[in-house]
Amino acid sequence: MEEVTLLYSGGKDSSLAAYILKKLGFRVKLCTITFGLQNNWVHARDAAKHIGFPHKLIKMNINILQNACERILKDGYPNNGINNIHLQALKFVAKKNSIVADGTRRDDRAPKLSKSDIRSLEDSNQIEYIAPLQGIGYRRINKIAKEIIMYDEGSSEDFDKGDYESEIRLFLRKEGHNPENIFPFHIQSRVVGLRAE
Questions:
Q1: Whole-prediction pTM value?
Q2: Is the dihedral of CA 23, 24, 27, 32 positive or negative?
Q3: How many CB atoms lie within 10 A of CB 52?
Q4: Contacts for 60 with CB less than 8 Å, ≥ 6 apart
Q5: What structural domains and CATH numbers belong to the chain?
Q6: Apex CA 112: angle with CA 171 and CA 194, to 5°?
Q7: pLDDT tens digits for 57-105?
Q8: Please, which residues have CB within 8 angstroms of residue 24's CB and are 6 or more apart in sequence?
Q9: Cα separation of 169 and 181, whole Å?
Q10: Which of 137, 81, 154, 71 is nearest to 111 (CA)?
Q11: What are the helix and strand counts (H, E) for the chain?
């Protein structure tokens, strides 16, 4: 059985990706990225326990977060900064794992890799990258997730989970910026269990 390491936020999309990869016959390990600013990763760790997958915390250099926040402030919106963090996280994980994955969806704006980013990631690291939700629209993903996964939802500004956005928001606040002026309103999810196995 081949092993795949999945970047994991503790939300329904990355949890559904883990579930699908397991059904495809992979041994799935989950990992959550932190920059050490806060303990938001505990939500991902707890979600991983709820759905029965091993979980690992990976601390990355805070300069990556700082550079992403500078880009976000320059652009006035978060997409490019988040995409850069995600690509750097995948590259970091690819150093020690031959198959890496994430829960990005076809309809996502961020994180979202370009085809050239994917080719470069795979070729330069001699790895495979899998994004099992890329061919599925958000309506179908939501229907599938509701059948398989139990999760809570809330607005992103006051709903903690183990994603990049939590630490980006905190870093921006510490630098004197209001994240609500940069991030559009959106709903986040946090997994609390499985309905089906």
A1: 0.93
A2: negative
A3: 13
A4: 33, 34, 35, 88, 89, 92
A5: 3-194 (3.40.50.620)
A6: 85
A7: 999 999 999 999 999 999 999 999 999 999 999 999 999 999 999 999 9
A8: 132
A9: 11
A10: 81
A11: 7, 7
Can you tell me whether residue 180 is helix, strand or coil? helix
The pLDDT confidence band at residue 187, using thresholds 50, 70 and 90, is confident
Beta strands in 51-116 (DSSP E): 55-59, 99-101
The number of beta carbons lying within 10 Å of the beta carbon of residue 94 is: 20
Kindly tell me the burial class for residue 27, based on how many C-beta atoms sit within 10 Å of its own C-beta (0-12, 13-18, 19 or more): middle
**Token pair 């932190």 in the structure block, residue:** 34
The contacts of residue 5 (CB under 8 Å, 6+ apart) are 29, 30, 31, 93, 97, 99, 100, 101
Q: Check: CB of residue 101 under 8 Å from CB of residue 21.
A: yes
What is the residue type of 108? D
Output the six-digit token pair for 55: 């979980």
- pLDDT per residue as tens digits for the range 125-163: 999 999 999 999 989 999 999 999 998 887 766 666 778
**CB-CB contact of 96 with 72 (8 Å):** no
Please state whether the peptide bond connecting residue 179 to the residue before it is cis, i.e. omega within 30 degrees of 0.
no
CA gap 187, 169 in Å, rounded: 15
